[in-house]
Design a protein that fits this description.
By secondary structure, this protein is of the alpha/beta class. It has helices at about 40-45, 95, 145-155, 170-185, 195-205, 220-225, 240-250, 270-275, 290-300, 300-305, 320-325; strands at about 1-10, 10-15, 25-35, 55, 60-70, 80-85, 120-125, 130, 165-170, 185-195, 210, 230-235, 250-260, 280, 310-315, 335.
């Protein structure tokens, strides 16, 4: 099969590699589309802690089941599915409590012997397969993975009707967090970033005050207005000072949800956590319920979520797209579609 292989840092080649064969508990899908994630770009740069070349990246696939292992009865060949890209043990304390996002032995694509999804075919455990609703285009179902991240973050924050949410960072995940928060009945007040186009989209999606933190005084003004701040602030950026800004954006007694994975230590407004009795929680990926919720959201508002896909490319274009994004090219979500050829 054809696959986009990260052969060295900052180098991707289109290669022929062996097609995956399903283990007894696995299925193989013909990939309709797979999203490019920021973590893929980190691996391309050589900054990812465990995805190292040579490797096939990608972990946001949707497609059609084309083969299944001898022990699989839960899904049929020909079904349209999105893949929750985890291998879990099913027996640790976290798994027993339904928290498979923090499974003690969880594995991800593009690690160990698990080939990633920037390829024509992709193998995955059958218990991580989710059926795509009939009303959702199969390529758009590749958004289920990042949307599940946003669903989980809002659940960790306790987002609900009548609440106010601020969001630090308006990349793909930040914008999806905005969508989920509004779906849950919350008002999204401030969304911050340093990119005009992303802030423009945030405004179109319902953020009341999209704010460029380089030029706006919104953080300082809210720092002075303790009780005019949000109930919840979701941090979907790892820029220096993002956690300090988050404390200034959150009311006393409010909750800060941290999504970004910092490469090093981060500044934190520790005194604000104490004096304002703010709660700081982490949010890592999602569990199976979050993934099903994401597919439901896509089914409920397919037209809006389709706007998140700003580009579709073939496998032969992956290297060039990584380079373009590394140079600052804006893409809310690029989908890699193996069926698109030269």
């Amino acid at each position: 099969m054809k696959a986009a292989v990260l052969t060295a840092h900052r180098s991707v080649e289109l290669r022929d590699i062996a097609e995956p064969q399903p283990r007894a508990d696995e299925v193989v899908i013909a990939v309709e589309a797979s999203g490019i994630c920021g973590s893929d770009l980190h691996a391309w740069h050589g900054r990812h802690p465990f995805r190292q070349p040579p490797v096939v990246l990608g972990h946001e696939p949707a497609g059609t089941v084309c083969a299944r292992g001898s022990g699989v009865t839960s899904v049929e060949v020909g079904e349209r599915v999105a893949i929750q890209p985890h291998r879990i043990c099913g027996t640790c304390r976290a798994c027993r409590h339904g928290d498979n996002e923090i499974c003690e032995r969880k594995q991800y694509p593009a690690t160990h012997d698990w080939t990633g999804s920037l390829a024509e075919y992709f193998a995955a455990p059958a218990n991580m397969v989710h059926r795509v609703p009939d009303g959702v285009p199969l390529d758009l179902a590749a958004l289920a993975e990042p949307l599940a991240v946003a669903s989980h973050a809002n659940r960790r924050g306790g987002t609900g009707p009548g609440m106010t949410v601020n969001i630090v960072g308006s990349g793909t995940i930040g914008l999806l967090c905005l969508m989920v928060a509004r779906h849950l009945g919350a008002e999204v007040d401030v969304v911050t970033d340093i990119d005009d186009e992303k802030l423009r989209v945030a405004g179109q999606l319902g953020a009341h005050r999209p704010s460029d933190v380089r030029t706006s005084d919104i953080v300082d003004s809210l720092r002075a207005d303790r009780f005019g701040r949000s109930d919840i602030t979701i941090v979907a950026a790892t820029a220096p000072g993002s956690l300090v800004d988050a404390a200034a954006l959150t009311r006393p007694g409010g909750r800060i949800v941290l999504l970004g994975l910092y490469a090093d230590t981060a500044q934190i407004a520790a005194s604000a956590l104490v004096t304002d009795e703010q709660t700081l929680v982490g949010s890592l990926t999602y569990n199976s319920a979050d993934f099903d919720s994401a597919l439901g959201l896509l089914d409920n508002d397919t037209e809006t979520y389709a706007r998140f896909v700003t580009k579709r490319i073939g496998l032969h274009e992956v290297g060039a797209e990584f380079a373009r994004q590394a140079e600052g090219g804006v893409a809310i979500k690029t989908l890699v579609v193996p069926g698109l050829t030269v």
